[in-house]
Amino acid sequence: MKALTVEAKLRKFALAKVLSMTPSSASVKYGPLNLADIDPKRPPNGDWISAKPRLSGICGSDIATVLGSSSRYFEPLTSFPFVPGHEVVADVTLEDGSTSRVVLEPALTCATRGLPPCRMCQVGETNRCESILLGEIKKGIHTGYCSSTGGGWSQEFLAHKIQIHTIPESMSDKDAVMVEPFACALHSALRIDLSRVNRVAVLGSGTIGLLTTAALRSLSADIEIVAVAKYSTQKAAAKSLGADQVIEPSVFNRTSRRSSASMRAGSWQSHGFDATFDCVGKSESISQSISATTPGGKVVLAGMPAISRVDLAPLWHREIELVGSYAYGSEPAGEAVRDLLGRSSVAIDDSGRFRTFDLAIALSPKLSLGNLVTHTFSLDNYEEAINLAAQAGARGAIKVAFDPRKKRAREQENR
C-alpha cells in the first residue's frame, strides 16, 4: 500500500531545515518524508483493527517535523520509521462485519498499550499519559509518531478500538477531519477560567488559531474575542467563527508595547487582555503575548512552540501565568460549560468531567468547521501539499488534507 514515511536520517532532517529557511520549495523533496510502498501493519492483538483513511489533515506539528524545525525533545518519544497523520476520518470494518465511518482519537494511552491506567489516565487526563514509552506497542505520543500503528498519511493503519468514534451519516468528511484539531482548541480554551475573563486575544489565525476562536465563542457568548490575522482569508474566517474584532499583527504589536509600558488607561489597548492564546509558537509571538496580557493574566501556548528565546522578566514582574496546552483528555464540567454540554448531549461522568473529544464531535458539524478545509491532495502529490500547508495563509489556504484513497474510490465519492 502507499504511505508517506519518515525515517531516522539526521542528514535529511538537517537538509530540510536549511532548505526551509530559503525561498526554495525543495525542503520537502530532500527531507525525511518519502512516498513508499509498504506492507500493512499487523495488529498486536484483537483489540486493534484496520482503518482506511478518507481524509487525513496536515497539522502544524507534522509540518515542523518534516521540515526539520521541531524540537528534539520529541525524538526519544517517537519510534522510527513512522507514518504521520493523526487528524483522520476513516472507514473501519466492525466486529459484526458492518462498515462504519469513524474519527480517530489518536492518543496512545495506557489502555491502547495493554497496561493498567497510570495516575493521569485514571483521572481522564490521557493527554498526560505516563506510559508512552511502554507496553505492547512501540513508543509514540500518538498515532502518527509510532511505528507500530502507522498513521493517516497512508491507505491503511491500525487503530485501537477505544481510539475510534463512529460519526453520523449527516457529518461530512471535512467536518469530521476537523474534530481532532478542534478538540485541541477546546482544551486550550478551557485552560482559562472563562467565568473570570472579559477580553481575550487569539494571536495567529491559522487552523489552530481559528479553531481556538471558534472554541472560545462556543463556550462563552459574553467574552470579547480579538483575533490577530494577517491575511484576508484568515480575517474573514475569524470573523465568521465569532471574533468581535480582527486586527493586524502590527496593531497587536503596538498594543503589546502600550500595555507593557502602562502608558495610557481607559481602553483594552492599554489595560491588556485577561488571557492571550499564542497560536504561533515563536519567540516573538510569545514575547508579544506576555506583553499584551494584563498583570495576573494568563498566556496559553496553544500551538506547538518552536525552540524559543524569550525575556521572562515581564512575566515575573507582572505575575503572568504561562501555560501549555497539549491535546486533550477530559475537562471539569463547570458552570461555564454545563449548559452547552446539555444542549450538545455530551455525557458528564460520576467525577463531574466530560470528554473533550465528545464535545468536539458534537460541535464540529454545527459550526461547519469543514469549511476550513480548503485543499485536498492525493499522497502522490505530497510535496505540493506540504509546501502549500507550510505557506497556507499567504497562499489563501487554511487546512490542507490528504485523501489517501485510490483514484477510483475518489471518483465514485464525487459522483
Strand content: 15-25%
* Helical/strand content category: alpha/beta
> Low-confidence parts, pLDDT < 50 over ≥5 residues?
262-269
Radius of gyration: 21 Å
- Count of structural domains: 2
Q: What fold name stands as the CATH topology of the largest domain?
A: Quinone Oxidoreductase, Chain A, domain 1
Mean pLDDT: 93
CATH fourth-tier homologous superfamily of the largest domain:
Medium-chain alcohol dehydrogenases, catalytic domain
The outline comes out as globular
Number-wise, the strands total: 17
CATH level 1 name of the largest domain:
Alpha Beta
- The residue fraction in helices comes out at 25-40%
Q: What is the number of helices? A: 15
Strand count, sense and barrel status of the largest sheet are:
7 strands, mixed
Termini separation comes to 25 Å
In the CATH classification, which architecture of the largest domain applies?
Alpha-Beta Complex
Structure summary:
This protein has 415 residues and is an alpha/beta fold. The chain contains 15 helices and 17 strands.
Structure description:
This protein is α/β, with parallel strands linked by helices. It has helices at 10-20, 60-66, 119-122, 173-177, 179-189, 207-219, 232-240, 249-261, 268-271, 283-292, 313-317, 335-343, 356-363, 382-390, 407-413, and strands at residues 2-6, 33-37, 48-57, 88-93, 99-104, 157-160, 164-166, 199-203, 224-228, 245-247, 273-278, 293-301, 321-324, 330-332, 353-355, 373-377, 399-402. The protein has 2 domains: 2-178 and 370-413, Medium-chain alcohol dehydrogenases, catalytic domain (Quinone Oxidoreductase, Chain A, domain 1), CATH 3.90.180.10; 182-332, Rossmann fold, CATH 3.40.50.720. The protein has 15 helices and 17 strands. Strands 3, 4, 5, 6, 7, 16 and 17 form a 7-stranded mixed sheet that branches. Helix 5 packs across helix 6 (207-219), helix 5 (179-189) packs across helix 13 and helix 8 packs across helix 10. The two termini are 25 Å apart. The model is unreliable at 262-269 (pLDDT under 50).
